[in-house]
Amino acid sequence: ESDTASEISFQFNKHKKTPSIGSHSSDMASVSSVSGSVLSVYSGDFGSVDAQGTVEFALDYDEKNREFQIHVSQCKDLAVVDEKKGRSDPYVKTYLLPDKARMGKRKTSVKKRTVNPIYNEVLRYKIEKMVLLIQKLNLSVWHNDPLGRNSFLGEIEVDLASWDWSNRKLNWYMLKPRSLSAINGVDHRGVMNLSIKYVPPGSLGPKNPPSGEVHIWIKDVKDLLQLRPSGVDSFVKCYVLPDTSKKSYQKTRVIKRDTNPVFNHTIVYDGFHTEDLKDACVELTVWDHEKLTNHFLGGIRLGLGTGLSYGISVDWMDSTQEEVAFWQEMMSAANEWIDGLLPLRSL
After folding, report:
1. pLDDT confidence of residue 179
2. Could you give the strand order of the β-sheet that contains 90-97, starting from the edge strand earlier in sequence?
3. Does 174 have pLDDT greater than 70?
4. Boundaries of each C2 domain copy (predicted)?
5. Is 22 within the bounds of a domain?
6. Residue 29 in this model has a pLDDT that exceeds 60
7. Are 134 and 253 contained in the same domain?
């Protein structure tokens, strides 16, 4: 049924509050530093201003330096955010979609007290032309608030596959309201097909198994973000939180050039008491493998989603309703495989 079967002990001292569980934040720095940047394009939007006005910009690709360049010239007739003072402090922000975290955002400077800001700035992305052509450019205008309560002023989205690259001139574009998918928070990262099973201690005979076991069968993932023309080279990481030691860490093999990878990989964690299921969380994350660094694609967290682990508040106990229901079904059906198809999220 599986290409690999791994058995790992679930070990940590749940009574030692500071060193073992508290060290989670540093152990997970590699995940949190990436997933923390995988925020919505519209994160921090506190305004309810209607989009209006225009933005002037030009696009170019520097073949010699392999660099995508966005020349942001100016905006006109932007919405007024602070009506009492009759002011807006606008700046322009860009992302390359679908994976906002991969290339990151770029921003112009903030121009204060104007609805007709002039920037004349170039935002740059180091990226191969072939990869660029499967991206979309999201260019949005924002009002900068000193307290971080920024207001969305309008956006434009450009499909770079159909862009006329001979057009290097500055052109005006009408700023549009947010797209319906963005307003609804749609951030499709793919879905994971998996099964899980809990085997209580002694349930298969005297001292068999000697401790409880959680079995995780990662079958396949569908509709991953395509980061390059050839597809994506993906693998899955697994931890049982709060244990982030090397003993807890497991991963699948890398499936190359496939946005619908089949892993068929089984992991077994032992050392579980039944009561541990209320405080533990299985974190499965999907990554794109590259030589220098791996890129986070999405993940799921299986647990009760209480926000607490052994009485301590933790940010990773944040399972969605679907994930909680999946975990609860496993807890209530000992020794039975529970099948699930769960959407990946940005964690």
Report:
1. 67
2. 106-107, 90-97, 136-143, 151-159
3. yes
4. 51-173, 188-317
5. no
6. no
7. no
Question: What's 214's domain CATH number?
Answer: 2.60.40.150
One domain for residues 307 and 220: yes
* Average pLDDT over all residues of the chain: 82
Residues 162 and 216 placed together within one structural domain of the fold:
no
Contact 337, 217 (CB under 8 A): yes
What value does the mean pLDDT take over residues 36-53? 57
Residue 90: domain span: 39-182
Residue 10 belongs to a domain? no
Rounded Cα distance, 304 and 283, in Å: 12
- pLDDT band at 10; cut points 50, 70, 90: low
What DSSP letter does each residue of 66-95 carry, written as one string?
A: TEEEEEEEEEESPPPSBTTTTB--EEEEEE
Asked whether residue 212 is domain-assigned, the answer is yes
Say how many C-beta atoms besides its own lie within 10 A of residue 252's C-beta. Answer: 24
Q: Of the residues 147, 163, 182, which one is the last residue of a structural domain? A: 182
C-alpha 189/C-alpha 284 separation (Å) is 14
16 falls within a domain: no
- 256 versus 347: the higher-pLDDT residue is 256
Looking at residue 293, what is its pLDDT?
Answer: 81
Predicted confidence band of residue 228 (pLDDT cuts 50, 70, 90)? confident
Query: CA 154: distance to chain centroid?
Result: 24
Dihedral angle sign, alpha carbons of residues 11, 15, 16, 18: positive
- Domain limit, last residue, from 182, 215, 230: 182
Q: Are 172 and 55 in contact (CB under 8 A)?
A: yes
